[in-house]
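Objective 1b. Sequence-to-structure analysis of FYVE-type domain-containing protein.
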Amino acid sequence: MAASEGKVSYSSLSNLEKENNKFTYVDDFDDTTWAAQEDHDSEELNKKISYPFLPDPDDIMDGGYDSGEDHYPSIPRNGPPEVNLKNVMSGIFAILTGRNKDNLGLSNLPQLPSSNVSFLGSAKNGETFLHSSVYIPSAPPLLEPNASNYNAYKDVLEAEPPEWLPDSSTTSCMQCNAPFTALTRGRHHCRFCGGIFCRVCSKGRCLLPAKFRERNPQRVCDTCYDRLDPLQGVLINTISNAAQVAKHDVMDWTCSRGWLNLPVGLSLEHEIYKSCNTLRSFCQVARLNPEKSIPAAVMKGARGLAILTVAKAGALVSYKLGTGLVVARRSDGSWSAPSAILSVGLGWGAQFGGELMDFIIVMHDARAVKTFCSRMHFSLGAGCSVAAGPIGRVVEADLRAGEKGSGMCYTYSCSKGAFVGVSLEGNIVATRMDTNLRFYGDPYLTTADILLGNVDRPKAAEPLYAALRELHSKLRC
C-alpha cells in the first residue's frame, strides 16, 4: 500500500495482505486479549490505539478495486472514543432525548450564513403579527399550459363529469368492501369518479374542476381526495364562490329583496347582500337625521363591524334569531374578508311586541375582534327598544366573552315592527363554519385567518366594501 498526495491506491490483494499483517487486531470476543490488557500498567492503558480503515466494500468492483479516478478529500479521524462510564451515559442520554448532551457534534459543523428576512410585521398600535405569506401558500399556475406541473395534473383538470353508478350496482363499499346498512354504513356517491362508498371512505370534500360546474366543495372518496387535494389552491382562486363577481347588487325599489332583509340568510353571498342593504339604510339615517346615526368618531375608530338582521318577538320574555357577517379592519386600514355568524338570544324585562332589527355592532379594540374570532361567544347587556311601523331605534351596550378573549361593543340598529320595552339581553353568537366553507372552498380556513387579514378580499364582497366607503363618506359629511 502506497500513499501520495492524500490518495490511497492498492496494487493487488497480495500487497494488501502484507500491509495488513503489520497491524495487530483485537478480537472483541477473545477473552485472552482482555486478560492481557489487565497486566499493563496505567500509562499504557491511557495510550490511544489506532486502527487502520479497511476499504469500503462499495469500492470493490468485479473482484478488484476502483481505479481511484474519483478523488475524495480525506476526512481526519481521531479514532474511536474511549469506552468509559461517562461516554456510555452520554450516549444513553443522547438516545433518550434525541440530541447530544454537550452539543459537541453541532460545534464542528460549518455555520450557515444568517438571513435578514423576517416574517414578522408591526402594526401602527405596536402589535406584532405574522405576515400573510406564511399562512397563504402561493399556488403554482397549474392552469397555464406552459406550467411545469400542468401535464402532471392535466387529466384531473380536464376531467369530465362521470355517470353515477346506480345504488343497486353494489352491496358493499368499493374501497373497504364493508356491506352497506341502513343506519351505520349508508351509500354515498363520489362526485368525481361516480363510485359508491361508505361514509368512512368518503369523508373528504373538495372543489371540482371547471367542467363539473360546481362552486361548492363536493363529497369525494379518499382516492379522489388525494388526487384533488394538490389542486385546491388553484381551484379556490378560480371557481370558488368567493372568486366570482357578485350577481345580486341591486338594492333599490326595483328589487323585491331590497325592501326587507330576511332574518336568516342561507349563504354568505346572501349575507353580503343583506349587509349592503343595512348599510344603505344607515346612510339614509345619516343623511336625514344625523343626530340619530352612528357618530363619525365611533365609526372611524372601529376595529371591526358585525352586521346582522335579527327577528325579535315576545312578552316579558323575548326570543331573538338572526344571521349576518363580521369584518375587521386590517393593519393597512382596509377591511378584511367577511365571516358568517349566527345569533340566538333571550331577553327579559318590561317588553312586548315583535320587530325586525338591522344591527351594526361596533368593536372598538383588538380584544373585541378576537372575541368574534372564537367559534362561539356569549354577550350580556341591557338595551332599550322602540319600534312603530317602518322606523325604530335600538341602543344597546354589551360585554362579549369567548375562548379568544373578551371586549366591549356598542350596538346601533334600525328596526321595523311594533315593539316597546326595556330588557336585559343575553345572546350566543357562533361562527357558521359550513357557510364559510361553501363560500371560500377551503376546509382548513378558520375565523381568525379571515378576520386577521390572512385571506385576500374576495371579489364577491366588493359591494360590501363599496357600501362601507359610502357610509364613511356620509358620516364625515
